[in-house]
């Protein structure tokens, strides 16, 4: 199977190199920017790839919704399999691409878009054929995990942890999408679509790690708790689901505590299989390229889709899931949620809430911040 | 695809029930013992299944090499796909079955034979198509993990931990295969065959947990170390590999420490993917049945094999892998391996060796035991 590659950056180069040694796969043309086709295997127009009958499949690793979406449509319409690592594309246009691929009888797979090298979506999409997935979640953002780990194990400040992550290439110059939880949120959208046939497109909640401080890290360490940024998706009723991102505190026996540096840990709970936990590198050239290649090998085996072409776009409902929270806020601030205990540390207090709806906690945090107070919160892991 | 089931015990019942709700699969006849076919869907002769043209695939969950092997040959020869959870069968006859399946153009898959519900072999067999696996291993025996965990977290004696495991159905009345590491050894044979195309059939080393005591658990706890029974397989040169089972000690940040109760944790290291860690229930009706069903769904997708039909049977070489060990033996006994330090505790001493070949440690333990001394050893985790 000859595979064209769209994009020749970090991941694109990795995919191209891996294609040279993969069983049953050969590298085809690589799409680069106009005027940059300075080697025989490079082309600078998508039309050349769509019209090339020797190309059986296309791997897109450019990122961003456009022009990736137009390119995807062009090659799918030309009857070529389409594989992508682009979570923004799949979160925005996944259902459309799944329907188009089905119509054309070709594959649409996107393992690399969620969990990098971790074979999360691949395994879930196979499991749903015979099992019922009851929960998806885990640590799906390596940048924030690196920062949380650096702050908690090495005692770094938030600013130093971020600078460190940027120096190592784990965080971008503008880290907003990672630290606010937006990147993780896109990934839980994809995971829900695969696991439940429902993609949450509104009503989601996301709390990142940008309120977490060295003082919080020190306080939690004394309690024997480790903070991780966790995504969670659970079906609610027949047509909805809960889907959110928030920091969660774990006791040291939890597998989440052993997820160090920029690793990812995805989990799902199947009614029959029970808990399945998958851990690995969430990003980087070779891990991400290996996930793209796994999808391509899977196409040779005969697989065609991981998102049901009839996937429903739904509004998330985070009011039905209850959690206890640990909330840090100024001593004098008031938390309008039922509290079980509180502890004053310096000018702040840590309030432990009773079980409250996830949506209520996120709304309360927004309200308190609007009033000008700084606040951090994390769910108590179960 | 209509699936016949061979065996109607714990797992067989689970497979049969799951087939009723699986996409693209329907339950066919179930093979039971002669004279026990007391319901319409049960049959008591393999010939009836081999001759049934409506049966497309057969799932074998009886265990044991015979008559499972004869049955497997009969249905493969009849052109039916064959899926099994039977590690003894695959360890003894895997290469023959793989060759026969290839000849007949049908599938031979055995995910459930290694790791229970953990999708270990499945993912590796897909990964090898585009990546190079450099290491396989992990915790692949749930019975011993349950016992080790009970002794270390709950302070149970070996005898009480075993009794507990038997009461819960995790250990058999004769627990020898589990506690001596034999069961884990069979699984590493399968994992090596899938990952490296080489199956170690002699020269393996296995040390189980039957020498581990409550005193060892207490001693290690003070050191902040957790003991797990670990399998390991690594290619050696062009034609050999190391393959062994032994207790290993881990610092508390290692993922192995978070594997509690009877869970399994498999890992492989791909040259491109990096470390991939998979955790889940290693046994039990539904987890094992879900692995069988995953293979069956995979056949519908088009997959045909996970063990290369040209797999080579080789002699393992454990002399090339070096490890440091912690060895407990009587104060007066002598360890003929280079030691870095030792600590006397009561009538025993704990000796910490320099790096020594794995095979040398196992041979030395055998020698000391032949001399009548009791000894426990565990590698220091890396």
Outline the structure in words.
2 copies of one chain form a homodimer. By secondary structure, the first copy, chain A, is of the alpha/beta class. Chain A is built from 12 helices and 20 strands. Chain A has helices at 10-19, 46-50, 68-77, 87-104, 120-127, 142-153, 158-167, 176-179, 182-196, 214-222, 285-301, 358-370; strands spanning 2-6, 26-31, 42-43, 57-60, 81-84, 108-109, 133-139, 198-202, 205-206, 225-236, 240-251, 263-270, 274-281, 312-315, 322-323, 325-330, 339-345, 348-353, 356-357, 376-380. In chain A, the strands form 4 sheets. In chain A, strands 7, 9, 10, 11, 12, 13, 16, 17, 18 and 20 form a 10-stranded mixed beta sheet that branches. In chain A, strand 12 (263-270) and strand 13 form a beta hairpin. Chain A is globular. Chain A starts with a strand and ends with a strand. The model of chain A has no long low-confidence stretch (mean pLDDT 95). Chains A and B meet through helix 5, strand 13 and helix 11 of A and helix 5, strand 13 and helix 11 of B.
Descriptive key words:
382 residues; alpha/beta; ten-stranded mixed sheet; 12 helices
Outline:
By secondary structure, chain A is of the alpha/beta class. Chain A has 12 helices and 20 strands. In chain A, helix 1 (10-19) crosses helix 11 (285-301).
Tell me the β content of chain A: 25-35%
Rough outline of chain A: globular
Q: Oligomeric form of this entry?
A: homodimer
Largest protein interface, residues of each chain: A-B, 54 and 54 residues
Count of helical regions of chain A:
12
The major β-sheet of chain A equals: 10 strands, mixed
Mean pLDDT of chain A, rounded to whole units? 95
Span between N and C termini of chain A? 46 Å
| DSSP helix fraction of chain A | 25-40%
Structural class of chain A: alpha/beta
The gyration radius over C-alpha positions of chain A equals 22 Å
According to DSSP, the number of beta strands of chain A is: 20
| Regions with little confidence, pLDDT below 50 for 5+ residues of chain A | none
